[in-house]
Amino acid sequence: MAQKPKGLVLWNGKKRSDGRGVNELRNISMQVGVLPQVTGSAMVTFGKTKVIASVYGPKLVVPSHLSDSSKAIVNVEYTMAPFSTKERIDPRFSRRSQELSKILSRAFEAAIFTDMYPETEINIFVQVINADAGTRIACLNAASLALCQAGVEMRDLVVGITAGKVDGKVVLDLDNPEDNYGEADFAFAMMPTKNEIVLLQMDGNLTKEECDEAMKLMKNGIQKIYQMQRDALLADYKEESK
Ligand code: ADP
Q: Which residues form the Exoribonuclease phosphorolytic domain (predicted)?
């Protein structure tokens, strides 16, 4: 977390720097089936953060000795487009990309009925088109939709959100200045109807009460995003069945 520039007010006692209240989400959009050549795809935006997810598989693992006879292997590859940040970034696979790919794979391994697809792999590619905080969570929501469109059987949708502390206030769904100059941030994902947590990361310092407050805000936010995922899937289904 960087040193906050002098004069930057993230919480003025009533509103955040972009005018939102503590529990307000950014404008969120979700579109399923954005890439016609893959079996499952989705585009998700959280404010200025924009990501695309695509799913290939389940398909037989080649070479077969790398396969698992009891379940599917779930691979997630998180990348940032070179033009997704202010300064062009090196698009090569970084340490951060590796970490995010791993935690996203873990989240989906918990959700997918992997034992229904032995000997196969399910490859999920998530790419950040524009980064303005919460990219891992936007990617997770997009991948959840893409998996559904690909017909991969899951225990539940996987739904994610962030929260954090800015100028001493716990707030939901951080944007870039909040993520950069806030005191703490959370990334959180659940299977909402199962009430199971599949991802939980935190950076910074929070008291127990602040943690509880953040969890409360995020659980609320998750319900709203869950409904948005369902609406996006329904819209795609209606379009497909025309
Ligand atoms: P997340 O995007 O999931 O919140 P981080 O906490 O690592 O992940 O990053 C927070 C934000 O910082 C990103 O969304 C992006 O706006 C910015 N950021 C991350 N990595 C880079 C980078 N290599 N170059 C420029 N900005 C970055």
A: 24-153, 156-220
